[in-house]
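Protocol step 4 of 6: record predicted structures for both targets in the notebook before any analysis. Target 1:
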Amino acid sequence: MSQMPQQAAVSKCPSCEEPLEPGDRFCGACGYDLSVVPARPEDSPTLAIHGVVPAPDDVAWPVARDSDGHGHPAPVHAAAELPGTDSGGSPLPPPPPAAPASAPAAPAGAPAPGVRFDRPGEPEEYPLQAPDPRLTAEPAPVPGQAPAPEPAAASRQPAPAAPDAAEKVCVACRAGRVDDDGYCENCGHAQPRERDHMEQESGPIAAVSDRGLRHHRNEDAFSVGCTALPDGAPASVAIVCDGVSSATRPDDASLAASRAAGETLLGALPRGTHPQQAMHDAILAASRAVNALADEPATAREQAPHQNAPACTLVGAVVTAGLLVVGWVGDSRVYWVPADRTAPPARLTEDDSWAAQMVAAGLMNEAEAYADERAHAITGWLGADAYELEPHTASFKPDRAGVVVVCTDGLWNYAESAEEMAEAVPLDAAARPLHGARVLVGHALDGGGHDNVTVALLPFPAPSQGAGSA
């Protein structure tokens, strides 16, 4: 891009979270009427640049759940799936037993059971007082007066059955089932995609990925985990992939690459493979996984003659007790931010991009190259149509503690230099990596959020977590 994008006042649809243009009255994605609810306020995270922002002592922050083993956070529970308590903190009594099949149908106009999901029905321990028959008896007919009309047929129809607990419930009407296409069967609203915002904390490391404010889907993916070397020393692993938007199925490419690379690293390091060799092998495994997507029949049907095969970039880091290894293909980056902020930070990767080639050839300085509209054209990627795969790997031995930042260009576009990235990283990022990753994603969204944003934070040296992988 020719210049750093400026912050845009972009709001989101309260139903499906799609970005909105000024003056929109209805959401272009799901058709939600924007006049019935006020716009939600922007949520700007606090950046702790010159000091640590302590968390309130009286708040019990929940611990992030483990992943499913493939670099994805566990699914979020709906409120109805969690056990409730009464005002005294005691468990709620069990619901009344279901009526037998031979029981008579509910009277006309009675509310259907299961419509509300946010609280249980009245417990049987507190029955209501029997009604006075004088107040509930049918009034005597008046001579000459026509009988009261029967209720309309529509009012006698039972309400639609509530979704089962295992099924997804619409975020808009909170009553309808969500079909396989991601739309509510009751009100038709499109549901937020599972990958729009992802968070994972694995031992001492964490990663956060967000769709951003302009893209209609998140084409980034990540994989993080912890393991141990043969001598028992801890090792932390993070892989971040950015789908190439101009290619077919970029979201599938980044997901396949991150999974393959993460699994390869977590499998090779405990066997004694040198971390730099393991990183090289992981990039090759990721490349094979992305190449395989081009051979799938679904791709052949979807692909037009002028479309490219699925493709993505990859960047990763392995942190041990005394060694830091990075590997990459494309323009995602790794930054080193020392705990002592008086020491200089550093960028540890070189972009596979047009701008980087111009600078390396001496044809432009860095400011001129990255101001050109061709700056972010990548010259290296993973995919069946890549000209030649050249995995880059490098090893470092930092002489002090710090934090490693692994990110896509959706973040470093708003903190390009090592000094700018160090200013954006909270001072307590090594101790609170998930909070630090959230702050960095918020930094990109506050700057405009023009791209998907993904960042992983790894403290150096790797703290001891015991054997095993997360």
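Target 2:
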Amino acid sequence: MKNYWIVLLICCPLVLMGQERQVLTLQESIRIAQEHSPEAQAARHTYRAAYWSYRSFRANYLPSVNLSSSPYLNRQINKVTQPDGTELYLRQNQLITDLNLEINQNIWFTGGSLFLSASAQRMDELEGKTTAYNTQPFTIGYQQSLFGYNSLKWDRRIEPLRFREAKKTYAETLELIASKTSELFFDLATAQANLDIARSNYASADTLYRYARGRYDIGNITENEMLQLEVNKLNEETNVMKAQIEVEDAMLTFRSFLGIRGDEKLQVIPEDSVAEFEVSLDEALKQAYEHSPEIDSYERKKLESRSQLASARANAGLKADLYLRFGLSQTAERFNDSFRDPLDQQYVSLTLSLPILDWGRGRGKVRVAKSNVELVNTQVGQAVTDFELNVRKMVRQFNLQAYQVRVASKTDQTAWRRYEVARRMYLMGKSTVLDLNAATTEKDTARRNYIAALRNYWTLYYGLRSMTQYDFQRNLPLAECLPEI
């Protein structure tokens, strides 16, 4: 009777928990994680920021139109220069209003800026009650740094690469989330399998112990063997309690990673079969070099180091800034008259700057930038080699893992049949408790090894997808399957 209540206390909470559980497969878990997990949300925000940063970069190469006005009221005593060159302090009472329309276009291959503007200004002398207008209906100009650093040219090469890297990184992150989901999914599956094993072993140990008591009472087994079975039963009872705690811990971790806020219990159901296909090493390397964000990251770092070198060289030498402007202008007391017979106006300026003595500061910066270029090239070369080795290792492991899953599945089935045979033989009195314990251990180990093999397969599967950014089953780059942000 006591044993009955122990089994009831262990099993009833699990039955109640099962009534409230949400059953998940691996694919459903991955879908939830990629949509709702904190990692997925952070990846989407990062990708969204990169997208708008790229949009902002592209806007630098498009025309911009600006309308500006800066009216002001001037009522104070100011020093005013007279026609004969003398200066007098005069009281001024003026209202100045203006309106300026300007169109700007950056020229990326030169680094200069072309602008076209039109403006009108009105000046009201409040004391004399006079009004004057100054209009510039047409002004065109260009400004250019002749020997300076052309950021527009370098950004045109770097920023598209940076955005492509961000897009691939987002796809890579989703696959890494799938890989992490697989790990936590099978952590929970292992914990649940351990609980099932512990419950089954406890029920079997309890049955065998009660059976042994009967055999001991009639003298068919020794006291030592009976006590051994009692110890087994007590150990399995402890294992059930430990397994329950393990399931709760794994469930909390899994639920937190998926972003599930509710308190419902989760039950995972591993698939018994895996996809039967083999990945070609050459194809994996080709797709990895073409679609992995790592390759774009290496190329971006090389371009950035060369950009820094160009900036250091430009700042260390001669600097010249050219400014050209041509336009039409006229003044009149009436607004319409200010457009009659406009006068042309030209303005040209050239600013030169040459460092004569800087104590080697500019030359030092250039040498530092050159060293950084060589360092980045060396690091990128080593990183590319390591990247290729990792792809080769991942492909080799993945291609072997499907076979290991099949072997582990067959071992699990065989160990279970052997346990059933050993149990029947013990009940028939044809084997010892040691043989039964050995069969039980092999059965439990085989089940855990099978779940571990499934875990390794799916972890390697999504790990390979993250490294190559390619779906080998559908022959499709993963960056083309990204969800909307």
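Step 5 preliminary note on target 2. The first helix runs from residue 2 to 19. The mean pLDDT is 88.
Proceed to step 6 after PI sign-off.
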